[in-house]
Amino acid sequence: MSFKEHEYVTLDIPSVFVRAKESPLAFVNQFDKVIIDEIQKAPELFHYIKAEVDEAKFRRLESGAATHGARFILTGSQIFGLMENVTESLTGRAAIIQMCGLSKRELNGSVFVEPFVPTLEQLLKKKKNVVPYDYKNIIETIHKGSYPELYQSPSDLTDWKIFFDSYIKTYIEKDVRRIANIQSEVSFMKFLRATAARTGEQLNLTGIAEVVGKDVMTIKHWLSILQTSGLVYLLEPYYNNFNKRLVKTPKLYFMDTGLACYLCGWNTPEQLTTGAVWGHIFETWVVSEVIKSYYNDGRTLLPLYYYRDKEKREVDLIIEESGTLYPVEIKTTSDPNKALINTFNVLQKIPDRQIGEGAVICLCKDILPLSDNNRAIPVDMI
Which of 1, 21, 202, 207 sits at a 20 to 30 Å CA gap from 364? Predict the structure, then answer.
């Protein structure tokens, strides 16, 4: 997806902001193709953009001309204001693209863009442009997180803390307070920290509510804010009526492991690997990277699930494509063995689905066969 033909303007610049507010029609009409950043600062523009989109559609219908891409690309740092205006003014006229932090592929300059599936065919294609990660680099990347500002220049841990201090303050004051009646920032910070501490785990609203000192409905509402903001992702269990013993609770993942580390007080990369949280943080990072591979391909409904039944048999990640289930385990081991794929057999009970190639994503150095159809995959090949 390329926007090289689009001009770029941002309403952060005072002169541009004033022009957009005072003459919105002239502002919109001056561009053939344009990216307007911080669009939520001038909501009146949405009315004129809607009129332009509708008129262009009418002209195409009259002439029979084909559509030539998007004329307006609208971006903003305040998701709630942006989406409110899109919903009110541009319903049915706008494609919504979920933007995440930088993926590992982007940080490495990889040209491989296919959504992740653990097939040998994809791994062999990807292997041609993989940038190998050493263990230290993996830990540092997971701890640092994926916000672009952290990669604009070399930064130390002081810069990292200052960035997230500012990010959380801005997020609460500009985004959260706008849509939620949060009377106590202290309680909301407790909620953020309690949620971050449970990344990679099954969602337990009651447990979070007890820590925060709020009722479950409040916690549920606050969690929906984090979802809308793109801070967390709820991975749903793979479920249908074939087995009543399957759990129906989603798993909670922070989309940025740097933010999760900051909220939990893990202030150095070394702290991650010395406690019980390391496995959950590593799993969170891997799942978020897989999610980004689908979002960056323009997918909005993701074919990603996990499996767990009441006997506690679990598959960390299931990718469903064209009636085939690809099972994935995520482990911090550098020495994977066949026992790690034993639970893949539970998927054979699912009717009308084929079981595809499976994988253990881990810290091994090379692709290793674990069985005829399953293999260990180095984490740098996500």
Answer: 202
**Is 32 in contact with 25 (CB distance < 8 Å)?**
no
Same domain, 276 and 145: yes
Q: What is the pTM of this model?
A: 0.84
Side-chain half-sphere CA neighbours of 148 within 13 A? 6
Q: What is the pLDDT of residue 67?
A: 55
Tell me, yes or no, whether 1 lies in a domain. no
Beta strands in the chain (DSSP E): 7-10, 34-37, 72-75, 201-202, 232-235, 251-254, 304-308, 314-321, 324-330, 354-355, 358-362, 368-369, 374-378
Distance CA 42, CA 9 (A): 13
Selected residue with higher pLDDT from 311 and 252: 252
No. of helices (H) and no. of strands (E), the chain: 15, 13
User: What is the domain extent for residue 238?
Assistant: 104-381
Task: Please name which of 340, 333, 235 lies closest in space to residue 278, comparing C-alpha atoms.
Answer: 333
